[in-house]
Protein: Molybdopterin molybdenumtransferase
Amino acid sequence: MALLAVNEALERLLDGAEPSESETVAIAEAAGRVLAEPLTARRTQPPFDASAMDGYAVRAQDVARLPVTLRVIGIAPAGKRFAGVVGPGEAVRIFTGAPVPEGADTVVIQEDTRKLDENTVEIVEAPAKGRHIRRRGLDFREGDALLDKGRLLDAAALSLAAAANYPALPVVKRPLLAIIATGDELMPPGSDTGPDQIIASNAYGVAAIAEAAGARVLDLGIAPDRRQAIAALVRRAVDEGADVLVTLGGASVGDHDLTHAVLTEQGMELDFWKIAMRPGKPLMFGRLGRTRFIGLPGNPVASLVCSYLFLKPLLARLGGRHYAPDTLRAKLGAPLPANDRRQDYIRATLQDGPEGLLATPFIVQDSSMLKVFANANALIVREPHSPAANAGDSCTVIRLR
Ligand SMILES: Nc1nc2c(c(=O)[nH]1)N[C@H]1C(S)=C(S)[C@@H](COP(=O)(O)OP(=O)(O)OC[C@H]3O[C@@H](n4cnc5c(N)ncnc54)[C@H](O)[C@@H]3O)O[C@H]1N2
Ligand code: MOO
Structure:
């Protein structure tokens, strides 16, 4: 049976994935969120001609010949303008951020002056006319377009929105991901395990990938290999309004691999099951009402590689984020055998070498091996039926970290 190609599987999985609702959150809670509307400036910044330095506000013509002594007629700290007018032979002591008083057109920095007494200053050096003044509206003017819809609220965007006087921001609702682990053998971390049991580890890595992609995660725990137990958690995920439901394990063809049967009973419309990928062949995708369903393979590395390749872009799209995989070209650090019909994602180390990036595959690639995966920082992508490759050949890699 021909297996579905990875690219086609991704296309089908992303079909129609758009952000749905938006909400308003306090600006202090908005870091990492995505703007649901474009933002325009609610004020002009700076709102007045402002001093960019600590020093003296003067008239340029008074400091054309140096040195010169000026009478200090007042003081202008940030937040409190000097109300008078600077006339001939006069100066105002001024500080960074303060409004430049009327009559003055230049600021002399204090390092270029000598204070003779409380009311007199000697100007030793002077800048060109207009220096050290930030003009009103230098940064932005009321009504200016500041941030586009879809902008990730990073540090600069948040400070800009705050400066433009937004106490709260319209953001895309974070998609909700529900996770269900399946398997009689699974116990949570910290358990006293029996001789045939293992620790359920996949949900933690999958949740971390999802949260980094902007999702909220509802971990529904472990269901034993019983139809009713799995079905009950599936119904809970749907009732909680999950945008995406992920099951871990039970996706293959064994007698205890119940995922497909249970989800079908619950009304899932299957889109695809089994793809031409290693690790990750048993990947399943379907829709359960408005909830998208992804059946991830149980093997730990398969569940994480599939999460990077499929779950991450899906959640990014649903959360209104731009997404592009971090794909690079590198040179192979070791030979690779010819590939079969499955697109291979080979755990590797990526490092800078004298001839550019060097991607060196780990010798053992079993999809149960989390230690190898934790030591890998990249995946070498091998197209189906690629011929054997030599060290030094060019290859495609996905950077993981
Ligand atoms: N006859 C065939 N057997 C298998 C095939 C196949 O095509 N024909 N595919 C293999 C591949 S590839 C994979 S991947 C696995 C995936 O199978 P399942 O999704 O059904 O996963 P399980 O059988 O439930 O578990 C596999 C393995 O992973 C461990 N596991 C499961 N869940 C977790 C978890 N939450 N945390 C940590 N480890 C977990 C489980 O104990 C098993 O060791 O099937 C192959 N077989
Ligand atoms: O997806 Mo499976 O991991 O190829 O072992």
